[in-house]
Amino acid sequence: MKITKFGGSSLANAKQIKKVFDIVKADPDRKAVVVSAPGKRFATDTKITDNLITLAEQVRDGKNTAKILTIIKERYMNIINDLDLGQIVKAKLETNLQKMVTDSYTSYDHLLNTFKASGEDNNAQLVAAYFQQNGLAAKYISPEKAGLYVSTQDGHTRVLPETYTNLEKLRQIQECIIFPGFFGVSKEKQRVTFSRGGSDITGAILARGLKADLYENFTDVDAIFAANPQIVAQPQKIDHLTYQEMRELSYAGFSVLHHEALRPAIMANIPIRVKNTNRPELPGTLISRTRTDNKYHITGIASSHGFMSISIKKYLMNEEVGFGAKALNIMAEHQLSVEHVPTGIDEISLILRADQFKDKEEEESVLQELKERLAADDISSEKELALLMIVGEGMISTVGTAAKAMTAMANTGVNLKMIDQGSSEISMLFGIAAADEQHAIKALYNTFFKV
Amino acid sequence: MKITKFGGSSLANAKQIKKVFDIVKADPDRKAVVVSAPGKRFATDTKITDNLITLAEQVRDGKNTAKILTIIKERYMNIINDLDLGQIVKAKLETNLQKMVTDSYTSYDHLLNTFKASGEDNNAQLVAAYFQQNGLAAKYISPEKAGLYVSTQDGHTRVLPETYTNLEKLRQIQECIIFPGFFGVSKEKQRVTFSRGGSDITGAILARGLKADLYENFTDVDAIFAANPQIVAQPQKIDHLTYQEMRELSYAGFSVLHHEALRPAIMANIPIRVKNTNRPELPGTLISRTRTDNKYHITGIASSHGFMSISIKKYLMNEEVGFGAKALNIMAEHQLSVEHVPTGIDEISLILRADQFKDKEEEESVLQELKERLAADDISSEKELALLMIVGEGMISTVGTAAKAMTAMANTGVNLKMIDQGSSEISMLFGIAAADEQHAIKALYNTFFKV
């Protein structure tokens, strides 16, 4: 049994929804379909989720919402018309939208979550109607009905454990389940969305709850590529990678699959297959616990920018028990998440995402506080850093991978500001100037994949 | 004006003390001589400091001390006889030793510190007597008299700032000052030793206090070598290195100069020259704030073993603000000093000296505590690690040093378990299996110095 999730571009218009129908119909094992909100139909198009956020903001600010509401309604109406879904579906959509904007909410957050969730929710109802009309027994199931419960901690939406017990009951449903992605419900019966791209998470939760054999994730690329195709022309497709490889690559910029979608799959050991809705005949990329060897030495190269480093110097620092703890505590007090901590003898660096500081003033005040409370000799910061990661199972036990990677970068004149290797056994992390990011990726790709 | 310190092997017997006399006499700028306790005369000899520690332990345990006391006395008596110093010096030594063993002490720590300090103290008095007898106006000055005040915090003896004001007055003394190294006095007038090898620290403190132009450190090697001569045959001598290079090298195993001796010299910007008592005509090694370029790409290669790593895995760790701080806090609560913290995406490693755990049980209990309090998915430890460091000013701005180093190690089959670079701009740290230490050092030496 398979859980099959379709992304926003796979459901952006009637033509795409017909492809989805053909895919689901072709394999009776596809027990549940997780549906995103309509995405972009062309490069400059706006996703319906973004329109819904705009609508929420306009409601909050007391602005005239007529125009944006029309845009949202038209998106659905075009699809409904093009799919010949008829009056009942139209009326249901109108009711849904009307209810959404006239309901009362306990907070703006509640309103925003509900508005965002409606993108997927309306689309799922519409897809279910189209499937039924075309002779495929399908049933729309909402997260409320299924009991997909979530809670929010520190701004993160997480699934509650009882969800899995609840979802298992869906196995008894005879029809193909059409399930809206992206959101669950709180114990207070409010809709709460996952982070953006969260339909991937819903799919994984369903796969775990329904004890699927495979979680299919349909998107608009043929496979996961070994490097960013916007940097490297026609990079190699990855046939097969492990959960852990995917996790590390998604940390450093691979966005094909939402990284939070991995955990439920890992917990239940359900393989994930990423496929292209527009070319379903292609094998795509398989993600599973283990894999057979691939012909390349490493699996992928990822990068991400927007990082900065804070360097703290203090003579005899390394003899001061708890110095690192003190530094990290100060950062935690300010809710600053530090991602890497390269250490020298009398120096420690804190690598973090720069956008955590709301302005220059806040940054300077934290630097000053670090200097004073740590009695540091010197403190400085450096901006515009990129983190670059090479990933591959068993990489560390292969002597020379590090040397090869660094030689490649040195030969292109890329100056390594940070090297962090030693915790993960399957990845190596380099800090470089953001300006060097593209060169470095190309150099690494040529070294490891053009062999 | 120069402060000149002589190590234990430079003062181990009458023959060596005569060399010291010749060296001091040859240069009237040598204003103060800092004296160690008599060291080893031959490879299997025992340093007098170790004999004094044995004596202290025997007193504490109520054992018969006659034999060890005789050994200590004989060491000095041999020197006194060989230098023809005569009865007054002998009587003074006997009085000193007698007073030491019969005095009462506030604690064993007080006793131990006083006993250890006597090694240098008696030697300084004896050296002063020899200098005077041979026509060099010399004066023994004790730390009490000079006002070399120290305090102890967390087991570390540190000089108090007023010391420098006190020491400046010694500039008015006409004679050559003979000063015992290794200890100062507390505000309670008790003698407190620095850590082992601490005469280097006394020398540096005097250099700063007396505002010397140069701090000469005489030992038994021709220079500081670019690599450990016990691993690399006849390594390159380093002509000139910076304070910071010395600091990093001494962290990772270069023991020629006590690393705590650097700070006073750095603060007062006093250059240090390491020389050989047995070959004073050689230039030795100069350590100063800046240096001219040397012909090699890096300055030195150091290594140190006895490290271990603790690896902690937790899914989505990197999204948990303060995770690293929590881990380091737990270590600090146990007074465990963590030296390096390589971080992955969902993993963090703690690199520390393994001997901080008193036994396997304590280690397991800390690991268990980390696992529970951090709600970690997995925790493991790895022993027998060595840290290897390559050091050189401006190394980081030279693209390719890292690549060169790693290629060298990869070619010899050395598996890199950890790479930490990014905080210090003049060094790069590698974690390897202790079993690979010698291979790795040789490979790096051949790459960077045999050019």
From TrEMBL, chains A, B:
Q: Where is the Aspartokinase ACT domain?
A: 389-448
Kindly list the positions annotated as binding ATP.
5-8, 219-220
The lineage, from the top, is: Bacteria, Bacillati, Bacillota, Bacilli, Lactobacillales
Q: Which family does it belong to?
A: Belongs to the aspartokinase family.
Positions that bind substrate: 49, 120
Outline the extent of the Aspartate/glutamate/uridylate kinase domain.
Answer: 3-276
Q: Which residues form a coiled coil?
A: none
Classification via Gene3D superfamilies: Acetylglutamate kinase-like, Aspartokinase, catalytic domain, VC0802-like
Pfam families for this protein: AA_kinase, ACT_9
Which biological pathway? Amino-acid biosynthesis; L-lysine biosynthesis via DAP pathway; (S)-tetrahydrodipicolinate from L-aspartate: step 1/4; Amino-acid biosynthesis; L-threonine biosynthesis; L-threonine from L-aspartate: step 1/5; Amino-acid biosynthesis; L-methionine biosynthesis via de novo pathway; L-homoserine from L-aspartate: step 1/3
- Might you report a single GO cellular component term? cytosol
Reactions it catalyzes: L-aspartate + ATP = 4-phospho-L-aspartate + ADP
Q: What does this protein do?
A: Catalyzes the phosphorylation of the beta-carboxyl group of aspartic acid with ATP to yield 4-phospho-L-aspartate, which is involved in the branched biosynthetic pathway leading to the biosynthesis of amino acids threonine, isoleucine and methionine.
Please identify the protein, giving its name as recorded.
Answer: Aspartokinase
